Each structure stands twice: as structure tokens, then as C-alpha cells.
Amino acid sequence: MSNYGEVNKEEERGGREDIWVKVEGAADDLYRIRDSYFPANPLDKVSKLQHESDLALKLLDSIHPEQRRTPMQRAMHEYLKGKILDVVPDYNKEAEDHLSKAVKLNPYLADAWLCLGNCIWKKGDLASARNCFNLALSKGPNKRILCQLSMLERSMAQGVDNQAEIVEESIRHAKEAISLDVKDGNSWYNLGNACLTSFFMTGAWDHSRLLQSLKAYQNAEKDERMKENPDLYYNCATVNKYLENYERALSGFEAAALKDPALNSIDEVRKMVNLLEKLENLLRGHARGKRLASLASSLAAVNLNSSYKRATIDLLSEGLNKAVAVLGKVVLIVKHENVTPLYYLVCDSSQLCFVLSVYGIRNDVIKEGDQLTLLDPCYHYVDFSWKEKSYKFKSIRVDFSEQVLLNGKALSPHQAILYPAYNVQSIFTFGDSIFDAGNNHFNKNCSAQADFPPYGSSFFHQPTGRFTNGRTVADFISDVLLDIEMVAYLAEFIGIDLQKPYLEAQIEVINGSRKAYPSNGINFASAGSGFLQETNKDLGVIAIQEQLLQFQTLVKQNQIDRSSIQNSIFFLESGSNDIFNYFVPFDPPKLDPDAYVQAMLKEAANLIDQIHKLGVRRIAVFSLGPVGCVPARALLPHAPVNRCYEKINVMVKKFNTGLESLVKDIPTKYPGAVGVYGAVYDIVQRFRAVPTNYGFSDVENACCGYGALRGLVQCGKEGYKMCQNPNSFLFWDYFHPSEHTYQLISQALWVGDTSRIRPINLKYLASSTSFH
């Protein structure tokens, strides 16, 4: 009997150990899904992760309390719970709490420090995340921790004075990880990313960094586990693109698209093919002619430093040509969709045309007709076929500004780009209450107002006319310099002052308190307005057609510099009031839902067309959120209060689909312009699906209002009630999000992937210099 009892105890101990192993395995499986599962619909991945997380948490909760009694056991339990909760891409406060408890219970648990650092990183506290990684490393060398530290340092390098030094630290830590396991593909991948970051960020534009990056990616590909990583294929293709290995780049982008359709790789293929075809067509069109003869004839008189040998394009060798100089004239500037490099069509003294690609120089420095002296040129003969189309042309690449003499003179420092900065002089905003910064307040004929307490109470500490407790999306995107205490991720935003409401600026110009309209942009948005002119006309709101007219008038009167418009970003969000009003019973619409949506889209298309004619080249259009979920639905007859009003959301989704189609057509319809589509509906639905992950305790009721869902009475009106913590609510009042919601939306639009904003995010759009 005693032997039997001992066997049972041994089996019981084994079973207890097995459950911990099973939970650890379930947590690891979650992260494998995160890193290798890329369905066509990104929301499928979110659902799968949520489902598997729930199962893993259930397994964790099945561990008997007796197995969680010691500090070490409790630490492991807290660590695993935090790790499981943190698998989602966005910051999760509950995950941070559990991981913090884990490291307090067991400060030697390196994996918990690693997970805590990753979690804190997501909320923008980069310094604290770095501290966590360093504490994890203090427990002993670890390639995973070194890789995460390397990644974090690349993020920390953005926008700081010593960024070159920080990027070098990132490279050093990636190399340390490799030294621990020379066959680890992830460590090589990290090194490739660090070298690629150095190429762009430090201003060196060093060709050797690209070659180092490519070599690292090739070593990463030798690890079978890395073959499921679509980012590896994408990044390797990006390096090949800049090395002008176009065929490899196209193949790499196609491979990335097969691994993860959401990566937008197919759009990279499209842009590259468009560029190649444009270059070929331009070269054919300028093969010979009187203009070339005239341009080339002036080059004979140019004096050259005796240390350089004069050459024409046909005498160059493949690769770097030391102590050689090519003289040429700029035939034309090649406009294209990418930010870098700059492309020019140049003819040499023998009247041969070639493609010149230039890095590290501002896009307004070299002009048509300029004379260029290209020192130590890097020559490449492009010759390959893709999809039954052949491409053949001669190309010179310039990596450093020192390699170019412009009209016989060296370039000055201010003509070079030290690193890709945000190229945004101003922001012009059009729309409704989601963007209104106070226009309605200055419109004395308007009854749709938010110029009374407690609006503005959480940030401005007074009403500003914004229909929320603080800032809106437009504020968050532009507001950095005003508030240096803002959370870390906002320190990456554009960094220009908040845009004034148009009517406020107009009053100041008229009364002489300011001499001119603001140079940083203007906010034309009016709460209550829509795409349809009749929407809330009785409330005295400024219809979007009138907002456009205000903008057009300022441009025609030269109150806004046309050149600044080219360096601006245009924000547009409207339509919520149109669709909500469709369901208000007092004035039944004359159109069926589909025709009504088409009428809205017609107005949206016209607005985009008109602002493009004024010179706007970067257009950010934001979808409607889930209007059927706003607390104000309680005002509508037959609308449910225990769930969203799906009839409204169906109409919203139809409109959003049409709106995205308009945005996709922008590059084709308006060459040189770029449009981005912010998928606000999908972003907000993520918040609603897993509210605690985003810091919400309530995603149904308004924080401020009265009645069912606090949606029957506007915030601040008689009888209203207000919650204690507005930023734990998705909705501030009966129709509008809280500042916290706007902050999360802004972050998703600024740095989000293509499931949130497409084809590029606002950060990339703000860095763009090629849309003039």
C-alpha cells in the first residue's frame, strides 16, 4: 500500500508539473500565431488570437491554488497571465499589472522582465521599457532580450540629436545576439533591420549599410523558422529596391504579399513597375533631339578638377568609378510615388540620356536645366524582364551630397537632408464635430454648440468648442511642441501648433489683432455638418461645401501661400450626421439608403477634386466610426439600447466602402497626389471587442449626459450626470468619443499597419517629399 501511495504522489507531482508546461506551451503557441499567421482579413487574426488567449487563460486558471502558494509559483502564474494578455498588438493595462507583480515576486525572472518591457513599450514609455530589458539582461546573456533591446533603440533614435549613436548601439546589440547563436535567423534579421535603419536615419545614406543589411537578411533566410516571417521578405525587397536590384525587389515583394496580404507589398510592386515603365518611356522620348544637342553643347566649356577624369555614361564600368566625373544636364525631374530617392533624366556631353538617382538632397535643390558634375559615380546597367516586359536603361546613383557639383558649385549643408524629417508645413481640416476645434462657437447663428462646461475639462480645463473632454485627432497629430510632457509616442508626431478655427482666425484678421491667417494651417470643420448641404441646415452649421468655399476664397485672395499648400496635409472626415439623420423620424428622406449613400459619395468626390485643383497633394480621408453604436441612438424610435443599431452600421459600412474606393483612385486620377484611408470603423470596433486592453471600463454609455445610455440629453445641459473617469469611457457625450479614444485612434492612424490605415500611415505620409 505504501509503495502504491508513493507512486500516486509521484504521478500527482508529475501532473502538477505538466500543467505548468502545458500553460507555457499554450502561451508560446499564441506568440507563434502572432508571428506566423497572416490571413487575408486581419480581423481574422485578432479573433483567432482572442480565442486562443481565452483558452490559454482558462488552462492557467485550472492550476490548483496549492500550486500557486510559494512566491516563485505566484510569480510564474502572474508572468504567464501577463504574457498571454499581452499577445495583442496594443497596450494592455491588465497585462502590465500582472507582469509587474511577477517581477516583484521574483526579480530574477528574466522572461517576465522581457515581457514587461514589451508591454510598457506599447504604451510609449520607451525609457522604462529599456530599463526592463537591461534588468532582464542583468540575469545573464540572452539573444531574445538583446534583439528586443536592439529594436527598442531604433525606436528611441527617432527625432533625437544623438540618433546616430543610438542606432550604432542597436547594431552592437544585434551583433551580440548573433554571437550567442550564429545560426539564429531572428538575430540576423534584427541586424539587417538595424543596418537599414542606419541607412535612412543617420543621414549617411551609406551604400555599405545597404550591403550589410542585405547580407544579414540573407543569413536570416538560412534559418527555416524565418521563412514564415513576411517582414523579412518585405525588408529584403526594400533593400534590393534601393540597391536597384529591381528584379529581386519585385520577387521579394510578391513573396511577402503571399505570406501576409495586409503588408501592402503588392502596392510596392505596382509603384516600382510604374516607375520603371515611366523611366523607360521618358528615355525613349528623349533619345535624341535639338534640345539635347543644345544642352550637351554647353558642357564642353565646363572646367574639371585635374584629379578627376572626364567620362560619358557609355565609358563607365559597373559599380563605383573612382576618380571619374560625369558631366550632365538635367533634362527633367521624374515625379514618382516613393519618398526616396529623387530621380532625374540627365544627358551627358555625348547626348546620351541616363537615369540619375540621388539620396540625401532636398527635393527642391536640383532643377531642370541645371548642370551637374557627378564625382565617383556608381554606375548600373539595368537589364531584366518581369511579367513578359523587358527593362533596359543606364543608371547612375549618388549616395552623398559631396558627390554632386551643382552648376559648378558644391552643395551647401542646408541643401542636404540629414535624415528624413516631417515635411509638413500646415494641416487643413474639413469635416464635422469629430474635428471641429471651435468654429461653431464663433458662428453666432449656430445652435450646435459645445462652448460650455464640462466640455474641454480634461485637457484645456475650459470649453474650447470641441465636442469632447480634451483634444481631437487633428490636435493629437499636430500637437507636440505645445506640450513637452505628452506621452512618448506623441513625441513622434508632426510637431506644429494646433490649427485655429477658421472663424476665429477671420475675426482676428478683421479686427487687426493678427496680420495674416495662420501659416500652420486652418481648421474649417463644423460640428453637425455633413456631406449633404441640407444636413442640420436649420441648426446653422457650416456645410462642407461652405467650408470648401472658405478655403478657396483664402487661396484666391493669396491669404494662403500656394507653395505651403503643396507641403500640407488635408484631413477629411464627414458623413456621420448625414446617416444618423436618415433615421430621425421628423423629416423622412426622399432617397432609398443606397441612393442616399451615393449622393454623399458624390459630394466627397467633388470635394477631393476641388482641393486637388488648389494644390493639395496629400489627402488623408477618415472613415466613419460605428455610428449605430453611439449613445444617441437612444433618441431614435425602435433603436435597441442593449446593442448597436445595425441598420445604421450597415449604411455606414456601405459608405465607408465607397469612400475607400475614392481614396484608392486618387493616385490614378490625380498623378502626383497620394490619398490614405483611415479605417476608423475597424479601429473603434477593436476597442469595443476587447475594451480592457485599451483601458476602457465602458464602451456603451456616455460619460456625460442623461437618460438611457446617457444619450437622451447633451452633456452640460440641465439634469446631466458625469462619470468620475472620462477617459475610461469610449464615449464622452451622446455622440462623441472621449479624449482617450481620440488618442488611441490617433496612434493607430499615425503608426498603424494597413488594417488601420492604408496604403501608408500618417507618419510615412508626413515624411513624404515626392508629391509636389
Automatic annotation (TrEMBL):
**SMART domains tied to this protein:** TPR
Q: Which family does it belong to?
A: Belongs to the 'GDSL' lipolytic enzyme family.
Tell me the leader sequence span: none
Q: Which CDD domains match?
A: SGNH_plant_lipase_like (cd01837)
Query: One GO biological process from the UniProt record?
Result: lipid catabolic process
Q: Extract the GO molecular function terms from the UniProt entry.
A: hydrolase activity, acting on ester bonds
The molecule here is called Tetratricopeptide repeat protein 5-like isoform X2
Q: Where are the TPR repeats?
A: 110-143
Give the InterPro entries listed for this entry: GDSL, GDSL_Est/Lipase, SGNH_hydro_sf, SGNH_plant_lipase-like, TPR-like_helical_dom_sf, TPR_rpt, TTC5_OB, TTC5_OB_sf
Q: Does the keyword DNA repair apply?
A: no
Known PROSITE patterns for this protein?
TPR
User: Pfam families recorded for this chain?
Assistant: Lipase_GDSL, TTC5_OB
The alphabetized UniProt keywords are: Hydrolase, Lipid degradation, Lipid metabolism, TPR repeat
Where in the numbering of this chain does the Tetratricopeptide repeat protein 5 OB fold domain appear? Answer: 307-416
